[in-house]
Backbone:
């Protein structure tokens, strides 16, 4: 990796740095936005717990990333994982990160926000029944053993990147990584007790739509920042992040119409996510027109999986596999056809004369899901040896908000008696109804 | 004709509905109510404020049935709602003076579903 001379020659560019500071904040906002999106999709008694899974990611993934994850992902490469040279953020300073014109400290923070949101994404497979404590432990292990490793393969000089896989903003570690891990997590943790027996419906569609809107907004930083500059690749990725989801939305409307005769709101929110995911790996590599085509194409396989999955016994609760795994896979493959050197300055795809690029993309599509699935499966089985992964049936029935957090999302306050702990004995002050 | 009133845990409401369906009892009204029985209070904390929730959410079933259906309605409520812990609820059976089906003006046994055997 080390290129003598380049380190000396590369300088921090304040324009690029300014954009990356903003982009990092945009990506961080995606995690609470995802919390909103997910919280709206669950039943009201699990609203807080579902959001808290995202809060857990903010806490656990950030700490793990700074302590070790960043080094695993972006340390000196042996091909498979990074070394320990950046453990505890050693040598992560104001000096520019190799290959960029921004300080490595900022590069670390930007990449850290990706790790956070990816951990939060996986929770979508297990909400409404996984115990909060078990999720905290799983999140810590997963962020290091799965996310950081996949990020190394795709971004950190690992073998996928070396053999030519193009992944602009995280089709491998973020989207396929979370999607196929979600599949494994749903299998290990098991279905909710009422799954397939009762209708388990979203309790607040406005949260879902608002969350999707905020995610799209944040995604401009996610994709637009993944060129690490305010230059051409950043501008292309930024613009494609506008175009692709719009096309996905439009095609989703049509698919909804064909299937049920009505265009649905939760479908629209889902389509925004699918479009953003689809363009993630390809954002800085394909032309705007190709990006629009990708938006249309990405809708179909994800829609099919979303229709198919609830008919199975697989309670992958919030369809992370369909929205992220499948759409990310579509985007990664799409690069193999539509990458265009005149736009990206890096490589051509099959349609522009280089069939080899498609092979490189296919390798990522074959290996990433397998690693994510197997590693997550093993991790959860290991955690299960130490602590139960899921709540009891009774706790599940009462709702995870009260059981795990001792709060309700929609507390009425009626019948609530104040407890004054400083009185020694519990002094009770009745509250007027 | 009797009115069977069941006050049950909200999380068991679906189980009760299933049990009633299996017992072929049709015609059910339910409403969300708040109540206090002998169950332990739930403690919740919001920032610095700790409260005991004295009232619990319950679901109230109201089912008018002909006399031969009273026992199986009670059984369905009991089987569907029971967890074995304090707070499972109560079942009340009260006589009904008259029942009228609005659509057909049928009264009493013929106005409740199912019609008694």
Residues:
């Amino acid at each position: 990796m080390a290129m003598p001379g380049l380190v000396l020659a590369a300088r921090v560019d304040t324009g690029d740095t300014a954009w990356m500071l903003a982009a990092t904040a945009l990506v961080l906002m995606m995690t609470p936005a995802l919390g909103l999106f997910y919280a709206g999709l669950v039943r009201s008694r699990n609203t807080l717990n579902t959001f808290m899974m995202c809060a857990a990611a903010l806490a656990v993934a950030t700490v793990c990333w700074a302590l070790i994850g960043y080094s695993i992902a972006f340390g000196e490469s042996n091909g498979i994982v990074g070394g320990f040279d950046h453990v505890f953020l050693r040598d992560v300073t104001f000096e520019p990160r190799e290959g960029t014109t921004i300080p490595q400290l900022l590069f670390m923070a930007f990449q850290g926000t990706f790790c956070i949101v990816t951990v939060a994404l996986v929770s979508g497979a297990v909400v409404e029944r996984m115990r909060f404590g078990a999720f905290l432990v799983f999140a810590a292990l997963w962020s290091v053993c799965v996310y950081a490793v996949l990020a190394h393969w795709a971004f950190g000089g690992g073998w996928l990147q070396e053999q030519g896989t193009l992944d602009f903003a995280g089709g491998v570690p973020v989207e396929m990584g979370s999607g196929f891990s979600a599949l494994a997590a749903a299998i290990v943790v098991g279905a909710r007790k009422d799954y397939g027996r009762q209708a388990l419906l979203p309790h607040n569609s406005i949260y879902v739509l608002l969350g999707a809107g905020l995610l799209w907004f944040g995604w401009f930083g996610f994709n637009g920042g993944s060129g690490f500059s305010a230059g051409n690749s950043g501008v292309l990725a930024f613009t494609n992040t506008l175009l692709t989801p719009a096309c996905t939305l439009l095609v989703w409307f049509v698919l909804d119409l064909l299937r049920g005769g009505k265009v649905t709101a939760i479908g629209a929110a889902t389509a925004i996510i699918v479009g953003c995911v689809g363009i993630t790996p390809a954002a800085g590599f394909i032309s705007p027109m190709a990006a629009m085509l990708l938006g249309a194409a990405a809708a179909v396989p994800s829609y099919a999986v979303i229709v198919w999955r609830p008919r199975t016994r697989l309670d992958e609760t919030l369809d992370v596999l369909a929205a992220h795994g499948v759409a990310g896979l579509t985007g990664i493959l799409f690069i193999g056809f539509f990458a265009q050197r005149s736009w990206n300055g890096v490589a051509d795809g099959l349609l522009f004369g280089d069939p080899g690029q498609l092979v490189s993309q296919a390798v990522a599509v074959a290996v990433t899901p397998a690693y994510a699935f197997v590693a997550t499966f093993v991790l959860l089985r290991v955690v299960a040896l130490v602590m139960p992964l899921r709540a009891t049936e009774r706790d599940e029935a009462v709702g995870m908000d009260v059981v795990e957090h001792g709060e309700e999302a929609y507390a009425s306050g009626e019948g609530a008696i104040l407890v004054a702990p400083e009185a020694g004995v519990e002094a009770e002050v009745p509250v007027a109804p | 004709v009797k009115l069977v009133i069941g006050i049950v845990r909200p999380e068991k409401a679906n189980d009760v509905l299933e049990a009633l369906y299996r017992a072929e009892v049709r015609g059910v009204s339910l409403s969300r109510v708040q109540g206090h029985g002998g169950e332990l209070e739930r403690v919740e904390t919001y920032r610095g404020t700790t409260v005991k929730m004295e009232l619990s959410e319950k679901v109230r079933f109201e089912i008018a049935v002909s006399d031969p259906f009273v026992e199986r309605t009670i059984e369905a409520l009991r089987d569907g709602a029971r967890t074995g812990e304090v707070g499972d609820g109560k079942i009340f059976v009260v006589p009904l003076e008259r029942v009228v089906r609005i659509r057909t003006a049928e009264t009493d046994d013929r106005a409740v579903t199912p019609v008694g055997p």
Chain B has a mean pLDDT of 88. The helical segments of chain B are 13-22, 70-81. The first helix of chain B runs from residue 13 to 22.
